[in-house]
Specification:
The protein is of the alpha+beta class and 120 residues long. Helix content is 32%, strand content 32%. The protein contains 2 helices and 7 strands, in the order ααβββββββ.
Length: 120
């Protein structure tokens, strides 16, 4: 009975790890998928734009880009939670002006539209 219990526990652990790996691979694929317009301009030698997507602030990664009324910003530090997990902060720097840095704060449950960093 104990042996069967351990076997079931091991099988569940393996399935959980496989699901996490599949989720990670899917997320990477979504970040790298070019848009339809980019495929059309590819023939003209233009740089491929990556599809934008929406994430909760804790899922931001260094290099992701966000745009607001003041311009385009790049995430410069890993996000961290404040105020009991109700808000998330990260340092951002203005694209093209690395000396211009700010700390930004978002409500933890609201999704943000971002573009993944461009692969060089």
């Amino acid at each position: 009975m104990v042996k069967e219990s351990h076997e079931l526990s091991d099988a569940a652990d393996m399935l959980l790890r496989e699901a996490e790996a599949a989720l990670h691979a899917l997320r990477d694929t979504m970040r790298k998928a070019p848009t339809r317009a980019a495929r059309e301009t590819r023939q003209q030698g233009a740089q491929i734009e990556l599809r934008s997507y929406h994430v909760v602030p804790m899922r931001l990664q260094v290099g992701d880009r966000i745009t607001d009324e003041s311009g385009e910003w790049e995430i410069a530090s890993r996000p961290y939670s404040t105020a009991g997990g109700k808000s998330v902060s990260a340092s951002v720097r203005k694209v093209g002006q690395p000396a211009t840095m700010e700390d930004r704060t978002w409500v933890a449950h609201e999704r943000i539209r971002v573009r993944a960093r461009l692969s060089a």
